[in-house]
Structure formats: C-alpha cells, structure tokens
Design goal:
Blueprint lengths: L2 H14 L24 E2 L5 E3 L2 E11 L7 E6 L5 E7 L3 E8 L8 E3 L20 E7 L5 E6 L6 H6 L4 E6 L1 H4 L9 E9 L13 H6 L5 E4 L2 E2 L1 E6 L2 E8 L6 E5 L5 E6 L2 E9 L1 E4 L4 E7 L8 E6 L11 E10 L24 E9 L12 E3 L11 E3 L4 E8 L5 E5 L4 E7 L15 E4 L4 E7 L5 E7 L2 H5 L3 E6 L1
Parallel strand pairs: 1-14, 2-5, 3-6, 5-10, 11-15, 14-22, 23-26, 25-32
Antiparallel strand pairs: 3-4, 6-8, 7-9, 9-10, 11-12, 12-13, 15-20, 16-19, 16-21, 17-18, 17-20, 21-22, 23-24, 26-30, 27-29, 27-31, 28-30, 31-32
The protein binds copper (II) ion.
Copper (II) ion (CU) binds next to loops.
C-alpha cells in the first residue's frame, strides 16, 4: 500500500466514523459514553449450543451494546444475540423452552422445513410462565438458518428487543470442502437500533415508521455497536444474517475489494461468486469469504453498506472494522466448485400462483393494520389464502407495485429465484442458490419455484420487514 493510499484510507476512516446513519426521523443526539469511540470494541461471538438437546429460557435481560453501559433486552438464555444452535443434518433437535417473559411468545425456525405445529404459527403462543417442548428432525442442507419469535402483534418488538439467534446446520458435503473454520469462521448478525439518552432501546413505531419499517441509527453486530475484529492474513468465512426489522444492507468492503459469495439462505452455491457488493435484506443470510492474505499487518478495512436507491434508506455507512494484525500462512484454497444445485423446471410445476404487493397509507383506519397488503388482503388466522398440495412443485410470481422494498419470506420451504424483472432486472449472487427470503425493490417482479415438503398444515408467507408483517402483510397457506 502506498503512503497516499494509507493516508486516504486513514482520512476517510476519520471522516466516516463521525457519520451516523440517518433513520429518516429525528436525530437522537445521544450521549452514549463520553469516552466511546466507534470501532474500538472487540466483536463478540454468540454463545453456542452444541448437541441435540438444550434448554432455552426467554426472559428480560441486559447486555452491553456500548461498553460500560447496560441496555435492557429480551433474550434467550440471557444471551444477546441468542445462542447459536449447531447441529448436523439428519439429527433431531429437542428444545425445552420456558417462557419467562411477561408476554406470550413462540419460536419460528427460519428457513427450516419443520412440521406446522413446530413452525411458530403467529396465533400459536406459549403464554407467559409456560413451557413447550420443540422437537423436530433437521433435514435441511448445511447452512446458517436462524430462529426468532413469531407471535402476531409482538414479532417485531420481540425480535427488535433481542430475541434472535443462528441455527447452523452442518453436513458431510460442506465438511469435505475444508472451508475456514474455528477462529476463521465468524457468524455476524447485523441489526440497527435506536437508543435513548440512557442507552435503552426505543421501540414506538408511528404510522410513518410502519410505512417504512423501524429504522435504527446505531448499527450493531452480534449485539455490539460499531465493533472491530482482529484478523490474520488469510481467508475468513463470515456467516452473515440481516436480523434487522427493516433495514437493508448493501454489503461491501471500504477498499472496494472483491469478496466471494459461497452460500445463501439454504446452503452452498454451486460455485463461488466474486462480487464487490451484495444486497442483504431482513431475514436473508449470506455465506461469504474474505481474503485478507494480500494485506500488510496494520491494514484496516471496514465492512460497510454502500448506498442504494430507496425512499427511506440507502445511504452509505460503516458497519464494523477488520484490523489485520497478524501474519499467518494460508492453508485454504478456494474451491472452484462447491455443491450441486438441483434446479427445478418451470415445466414441471403443478401450479402457478400470482401475488401483488401493495402499500397504501390510506388503506387503513388510523391505528389499525392494513396499509400493506398481499393480493389486497391482510393476515387473517381464520382464513386460508392458498391450499398447496404437499410434495408438489409450484411457481409463484410476486410483484411489488408499492414504492417500498419488501423482503418476502415463505415458511417451511426453500425456493429458487428464476427471474427478476423491473427494478434491478437481474438476480444477485445469493440468488444462485436456495432461498427462503427474497427482496423485491419497488417495481420489481420475481418468479420463484419450489417443491413443498411432505408436512401438512397451516404455514404463513409474509414480508420480513417486521413492521409490514405486523401491519398485516402476511397470508396463510395450508399444505394438504
Ligand atoms: Cu414489506
């Protein structure tokens, strides 16, 4: 690196750390800790749960988002983020869950194919003070899935207040690739928060917040505001989850270096895809490799969100810092192929369905849900919107006619994105693999294909902008 480059990088870092993320609302000109300097707090790794049985307790808790200060949260096992569950495909998971919150909750296993009674249907709640035994076989491919509450009316607030964790599935195919592991495999859950003057979480969406989704101005990674990670001169694997309620990240490195996307929501891609940026909307995951081997010790690089066009968000900001602080011999070489994606042919589809997404601020009475709709409908637990034949293959066409982005998520199934028209008019790297959540920017239409599993019963599909979901942007399908 030349001196000029170093100077430019140092200067831009100095300028950028003073930038806070606009939340399109008032600036909470917060007094965090007077001594607080962004990107000086080490990243922490979530707690882990290994094996096939665990006890989970949901309760009020606290955590240091900003070092030296205590922020109240709702947590699983007092852990922010929730403990990472790590399990092999084919094993059966048993979770003895205790709800020690003061309100009802449930758990949705996002991305996993599970029976309907394990999936966290929005109106099936575990009441305060009660427990429930979750038990289901894990048959999905190796990937980073996640879990979070899904009770109607409290999904957005409970997730925002801290209830979310990784669910890592491993299998033999992935193990054979010898991807970076241990210290070199790092889960990153990225979220945005608003804090008050006492560094407590604010969650009080107005009608305007519900239109855009709740956007925070503090970006936290694994529960820490503006952290850094020390890295060695080699490849690292990052399992990235956008666990935010509404914020979309356009992930990039501050030196514009390329990185490799190797996996998506539902596991490995067929081959690594090199890219300079990657959009990741709420609920989506990306499995990425960053090669730090060409940097000299002392180099600092930020993970940032590049600007993109959207009415309510999309400005550039820093997320976390990588400090290259030790030289190490590389033991990993990037495989040219990773896995086989068995594509589904649209000609084999049994049914094609169409969905139109709308947002109309006048669509609801003040204080009531209904501004965001799918096929002009909002969630009704007593109505089944689509009957789906278990085991059948379907094509769904989803069109976003609103002026807000909508990350659409289907429960209990993984799909492939066949096509995107309008807007970006193309697929993005993560869409080369299995997905459970796909972003529709304004004006975009996607065609997806999926084969439903054999589980029967009622599931939901919805917008994963959690304020939109709470506003009713969710329908019911029943597998028969
Ligand atoms: Cu939405």
């Amino acid at each position: 690196m030349t001196f000029k480059n170093l100077l430019t990088q140092t200067l831009s870092a100095a300028i950028l750390i003073t930038v806070t993320v606009s939340s399109c609302k008032k600036k909470e000109d917060e007094k965090i800790e007077p001594s607080f300097q962004p990107f000086t707090t080490p990243l922490k790794r979530p707690a882990t749960v290994s094996g096939t049985s665990a006890t989970f307790t949901a309760s009020a808790s606290s955590s240091e988002v900003i070092p030296g200060t205590s922020t109240g949260f709702l947590a699983y096992n007092n852990s922010i983020p929730g403990p990472t569950i790590s399990i092999n495909s084919g094993q059966t998971l048993n979770i003895n869950f205790m709800n020690s919150l003061s309100e009802g909750t449930n758990i949705h296993w996002h991305g996993l194919e599970v029976p309907a009674d394990q999936d966290g249907f929005p109106t099936s709640r575990i009441s305060a003070g009660s427990n429930y035994n979750f038990s289901f076989p894990v048959n999905n491919r190796a990937s980073a899935y996640w879990y979070h509450p899904h009770p109607e009316g409290a999904t957005a607030s409970q997730v925002y207040k801290g209830m979310a964790g990784f669910f890592i599935v491993r299998d033999a195919e992935e193990a054979a690739l010898n991807l970076p592991s241990g210290d070199y495999e790092v889960p990153l859950v990225i979220q945005d928060k608003r804090l008050d003057n006492s560094n407590q979480l604010i969650y009080s969406p107005t009608t305007n917040d519900i239109m855009t989704g709740w956007l925070g101005d503090k970006i936290v990674v694994n529960g820490i505001y503006a952290p850094y990670l020390s890295v060695a001169t080699r490849f690292y694997r990052f399992r990235v989850l956008n666990g935010s309620n509404a914020r979309i990240y356009n992930l990039a490195l501050s030196n514009s270096a390329n990185f490799y996307v190797i996996g998506s929501d539902g596991g490995l891609l067929s081959a690594p895809v090199s890219t300079q940026s990657l959009m990741l909307s709420p609920g989506e995951r990306a499995d990425i490799l960053i090669n730090f081997s060409s940097y000299s010790v002392g180099t600092e690089i930020y993970l940032q969100s590049n600007s993109f066009t959207s009415m309510s968000q999309g400005n550039e900001f820093k997320i976390m810092k990588f400090k290259v602080d030790k030289s190490e011999a590389e033991t990993f070489s990037l495989p040219s192929s990773l896995s086989v994606i068995n594509s589904l042919s649209p000609a084999s589809a049994d049914t094609t369905r169409s969905f139109v997404l709308k947002a109309d601020p006048m669509g609801a009475m003040p204080g009531m849900s209904g501004m965001h709709t799918i096929n002009d409908k909002i969630f009704d637990e007593n109505r089944v919107d689509e009957f789906v034949q278990a085991g059948s293959t379907e094509v769904w066409e989803i069109e976003n006619t609103s002026d807000e982005p909508h990350p659409m998520h289907i429960h209990g199934v993984q799909f492939l994105v066949l096509q995107r028209t309008g807007g970006r008019n193309a697929l993005i790297p993560t869409e080369n693999g299995w997905k459970d959540t796909a972003l529709l920017m304004p004006g975009e239409k996607i065609r997806i294909i999926m084969k439903f599993p054999s589980y029967l019963g009622k599931f939901v599909f919805h917008c994963h902008n959690l304020e939109h979901e709470e506003d009713g942007m969710m329908l019911v399908f029943q597998a028969i």
